[in-house]
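Sequence in, structure out.
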Amino acid sequence: MSIEFLTEQLQLVENAKRENRQRVANIVLENKNLFKYLVAITFKVDDKISIKAAWILEWICTHHHLEWILPHLDEFSTRISTLKFDSSIRPCAKICEHLATAYYSKTENDVQKTLTENYIKLIVEAGFDWLITPQKIAVRAYTMNTLYLFGLEQDWIHPELKHLIETKIIHESKGCKARGKHVLLLIEKHQKTRL
C-alpha cells in the first residue's frame, strides 16, 4: 500500500459525508502504515486533496485512535500553521482540541506522555493565528477550547484569549458569541479557584 494508492482513494471521496470518511478511514485502519501518508497528504497545503486527507485524519483521531497522531506530532505541530484551506484547518483544529482534552484528562494516557512543551507552544501559536484571521465558527470554537485548556498551566494564555474574545470574537456570529461567552465564564471560574 502506497501514498499513490491512498491518494487515489481520497480522490474518490466526493464530499465529507460520514460514509465517505468512514470508507477511507477503514482502509487506513486496516493498513496502519498508510497513516503516515495521510498525515503527509494533509500537509500538501497547496493541493485540494489535502482537504480530504484532513477529513479522514480527523475522523480517525476522533472516532478511532487519537494516539495514532502521536508519532507524527513533529510534523503535525510544526505544519498546522501552514494550512491554507478552511476545510483543512477545521479538522486539524478539532484534532488540537482532542489533544488538549486528552492532555488534561484525569485518566492517564499516552498524550500526556508525548505532548511536549514545544508541541503545545506550536499548537497555541497556530490557535491564536486562527483566532485573529477570518475563520469559520467551528475553527474558532475548537480553538477557544484548546487555548482555554492549555491556559490552565500557562498564565499568559487566558488574558490574551479573554482579550480576543471580548474585542473581536464576541462581535462575530451568534455561535462565536455563545462559545466566546462560555469560554469567558470558564476563564473567570478558573481565576477564582486560583485566588
